[in-house]
């Protein structure tokens, strides 16, 4: 287990240095900073997820600093919590061997290390969901277990709304498990979960109900058509890739396929495992029903899947065949690493953190204390200790070219006319743009017309001049260009 933990930690540290930045990483980092500057989610700035992530990550960042490195370290902390919870579940079902299998399931996946060290919701959601399963199915007194487990489940829901069906399954388990003998504890569990939900929702609903409705519901359901929506075959490809980048799913599938009788008897003997599997299934169904589906979305379920896999591999295969399953697991893990581990890597030269520091030095030298940065990824300004031009801290989701100015001001968006006017005033100190920075519009996730894109870049070229080009360390275009106002370039 020490070797498995070391592998997981080392791989995570590698991705802290070399993992590409998600395009919306600045959006999450911005929210974590804003809430501790006294601004209120939804009412004062744009944020399209539940309220837990900004307040949890913001609490850590207040102590550590507001940069990418610090945020990735916070994700690593929750990644290790999820790892430990998964191993604890598997140990309960299959002893130390089950815990080893569960740990190996997560440790050999480079993609998992990448997703769970990114500035996204994945690590926190996965940790809260797995902890909820561990607590609710545990052996501590029901009077503690049910309230604590239900609160953890609600916190997971308050981090990422797509886990709602799984939270319902976990609450159902609590009711079924304790209704006959621990009815009072079950009622306390239900009341605790309800109270946690009220604490998370009521303040924001009272302050800005329309903004909450837009941010939490409307923007997500608006992307129901268009060229970016995943078709069913594409979603099936994602499921296939899941097996390839989490390679221990292959021996688990082989066990269930070739030993269905022992596997079924094991499930019947462990009713709590059935509920955990059902939790995974219903959340996967919710993800597949959405407009966009990815391995990253599914990564929040992988600690639970690791626990179930540990339970299966630790008990079902006959003793005389264990060495073959171990050998198969080593082989598929090696092949997965050889063919897929490179995908989330920034190829260099240098680390992502090194290039962030280069960009940060440029920004700090050109952005005065009252100055701002405009770009479709707000992470660069935040990492440099600079301010994003509102509302570009919420980029890319705040580019709303189909809205009029009144709607933009109400919900924290910006349209083409407003961007052109902003550029013509040269109000912002530095632009950081990719070639396709304004090619996608929200809400609806649609292709922006060439006329709108041309109008914006004509205004860019009219008022600003390229001053530096950096390799793009995100998952977008290949380059990132920094622009300065033309007068500033001439003066220099």
Secondary-structure class: mainly alpha
Give the SSE order as H and E letters: HHHHHHHHHHHHHHHHHHEHEHHEEEHEEH
Question: What is the average of the pLDDT values?
Answer: 92
* Low-pLDDT windows of residues: none
Architecture overview:
It is globular and about 75 Å long. The N and C termini lie far apart (58 Å). The strands form 2 sheets. A 5-stranded mixed sheet has the order 2-1-3-7-6. 65% of the residues lie in helices and 6% in strands. Helix 4 packs across helix 6, helix 4 (68-107) packs parallel to helix 16 and helix 8 (164-178) packs antiparallel against helix 14 (271-289). A hairpin with a 7-residue loop joins strand 6 (464-471) and strand 7 (479-485). It is mainly alpha-helical and 492 residues long. The longest helix has 40 residues, at 68-107. The relative contact order is 0.13. It has helices at residues 2-18, 25-34, 52-64, 68-107, 110-115, 122-136, 142-159, 164-178, 183-207, 209-221, 232-245, 249-258, 260-269, 271-289, 295-299, 302-313, 322-340, 352-366, 379-384, 405-411, 416-425, 450-463, 486-491; strands at 372-375, 387-388, 430-433, 440-441, 446-447, 464-471, 479-485. It is built from 23 helices and 7 strands.
């Amino acid at each position: 287990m020490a070797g498995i933990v070391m592998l997981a930690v080392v791989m995570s540290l590698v991705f802290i240095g070399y993992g590409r930045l998600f395009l919306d990483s600045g959006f999450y980092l911005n929210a974590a900073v804003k809430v501790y500057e006294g601004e209120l989610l939804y009412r004062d700035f744009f944020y399209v997820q539940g309220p837990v992530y900004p307040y949890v990550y913001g609490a850590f960042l207040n102590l550590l600093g507001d940069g990418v490195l610090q945020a990735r370290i916070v994700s690593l902390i929750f990644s290790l919590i999820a790892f430990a919870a998964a191993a604890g579940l598997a140990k309960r079902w299959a002893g130390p061997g089950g815990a080893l299998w569960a740990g190996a399931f997560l440790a050999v996946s480079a993609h998992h290390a990448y997703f769970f060290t990114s500035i996204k919701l994945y690590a926190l959601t996965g940790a809260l969901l797995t902890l909820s399963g561990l607590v609710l199915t545990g052996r501590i007194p029901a009077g503690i277990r049910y309230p604590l487990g239900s609160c953890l489940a609600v916190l997971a829901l308050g981090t990422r709304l797509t886990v709602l069906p799984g939270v319902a399954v976990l609450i159902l388990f609590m009711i079924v498990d304790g209704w006959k003998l621990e009815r009072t504890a079950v009622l306390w569990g239900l009341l605790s979960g309800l109270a946690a939900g009220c604490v998370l929702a009521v303040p924001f609903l009272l302050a800005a109900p329309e903004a909450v409705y837009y941010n939490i519901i409307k923007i997500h359901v608006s992307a129901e058509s268009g060229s970016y929506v995943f078709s069913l075959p594409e979603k099936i490809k994602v499921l296939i890739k899941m097996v390839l980048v989490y390679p221990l799913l292959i021996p688990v599938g082989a066990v269930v396929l070739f030993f269905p009788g022992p596997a079924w008897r094991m499930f019947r003997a462990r009713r709590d495992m059935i509920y955990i599997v059902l939790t995974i299934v219903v959340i996967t169904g919710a993800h597949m029903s959405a407009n966009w589906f990815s391995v990253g979305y599914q990564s929040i379920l992988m600690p639970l899947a690791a626990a179930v896999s540990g339970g299966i591999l630790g008990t079902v295969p006959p003793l005389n065949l264990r060495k073959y399953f171990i050998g198969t697991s080593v082989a598929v893990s090696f092949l997965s690493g050889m063919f897929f581990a490179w995908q989330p890597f920034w190829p260099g030269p240098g680390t992502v953190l090194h290039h962030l520091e280069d960009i940060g030095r440029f920004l700090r030298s050109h952005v005065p204390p009252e100055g701002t940065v405009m770009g479709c990824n707000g992470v660069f300004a935040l990492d440099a200790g600079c301010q994003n031009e509102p509302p570009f801290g919420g980029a890319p989701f705040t580019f709303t070219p189909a809205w009029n100015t009144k709607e933009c001001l109400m919900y924290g968006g910006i349209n083409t006319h407003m961007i052109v006017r902003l550029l013509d005033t040269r109000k912002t100190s530095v632009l950081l743009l990719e070639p396709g920075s304004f090619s996608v519009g929200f809400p609806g996730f649609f292709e922006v017309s060439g006329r709108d894109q041309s109008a914006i870049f004509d205004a860019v070229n009219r008022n600003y001049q390229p001053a530096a080009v950096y390799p793009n360390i995100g998952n977008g275009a290949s380059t990132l260009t920094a622009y300065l106002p033309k007068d500033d370039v001439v003066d220099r």
